[in-house]
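Entry for the shared binder. Reason: the reviewer on the internal report wants the predicted structure included alongside the sequence.
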Amino acid sequence: MLKQVFATLSMLLLVSAAPAQEGPRQLKPGWNLFSKDQDIQLGKEAAAQVEQQMAVIQNQELTAYVRRIGDKLAAAPEAGGFPYTFKVVNDKSINAFALPGGPAFVHTGLLTAADNEAQVAGVLAHEISHVALRHGTNQASKANLIQLPALLAGGLLGKSGSMLGQLSQLGIGLGANSVLLKFSRNAERDADLLGTRLMAAAGYNPIEMARFFEKLEAEGGSRGPQFLSDHPNPGNRVKAVEAEIRYLPQRSYTTGDGTAFTRVRKLVAALPPPPARPAAQAGGTAAGGTTAGGTAAGAPALPDLRPSRGVREYRGAGYTFSYPDNWQVVSEAQAPTVTVAPRAGLVQGGDGTAIGAGLVAGFQTGRGDLRTDTTELVRQMISSNPGMQVASTKDARVDGQPALLVTLQTKSPFAGETEIDTMAAVERPGGLFYLVLIAPRSALANLQPAYNAILGSIRFTK
């Protein structure tokens, strides 16, 4: 994926961690366009979709066991008072997830991987914390600053049909890399800290949460268990949890009911194999379905990236160009640098928002020599994107001016895709003008006519 060496996505990227401070960190939900009631409605709709697509277990004993742990954790005031539900999914991958508003699902693979009940409680406490801190809709709010306010201000969201259906038109769904379910390291840190407090309040030893995450890292690293693919490690979890415990009232902790835990593991071992799911469903579930390489297992097809026939004009500082009118200006820095993309071309990940399809344009200071300055810009791009390679460089003309067209390829934020980046560079009085066109390889044929038109529409105004 093309990681920005330019400051074009600063509005959408997640803020860095705050400096260390004395005393426990104050944890509260961030800025959000959604109300708590809308979180709950969205979660109910998404849970219904999950239950259609995943093998939710009907075994009463298994369900009651997970519900007992979850209810104990959710009873704490810090859990936010959401209507939490807890269900078990017959899936051997090590994973769990919670939807906005409270529905939580635990994979049987996680029950098998845990060493004790407190480790199961640790994962549930972590997931409950994401709900209580409203991380999913917080991210959706930041990623959809243009359309959401109009929907919410008019009271339209969810009023005329499914809220989830309406949000899916904005690129907010339950598939791989869903903005609702893939969190930043800052969000993971806060979920660890709040999870520590929830565990302590329920009587579980909080250090077991960190030990379980550490165990998963040791067994497979971030490319191993699915849980860690969706929940990036915010740092030394054991050390952070130990530090948080020091702020909590002293009390005796437990690792849980060992007898019940052993019984549950036997029940899981006796379950029939999980039913095979069609590939289209496997990648479209809320679980995200990442594999060892970070690619979605059975990932859904690319979203519809086809450009419209109508165009709009963007006017920058010293240049203009036209772009499809179903794209939008996502962000602008104070310098004349802009990102324009279809909503479906923006992909949410643990480190923020990546551009899977669209363009970035602006100026780069240089020495006034086209080849030298272009080479330096390409070097910066490769330095910021490990694995990126130059495929070709050729001479061209843009608005009658000498230009270089550089084609690069790298890993796309879309699962299993290779990204093709085509950069046009022109030396101008204000520095090196560049425009980078970004596309997944399998969608390039559909996007190429629009990309050619964009390049042909570039005009320099000074």
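Summary line for the report: The radius of gyration is 24 Å.
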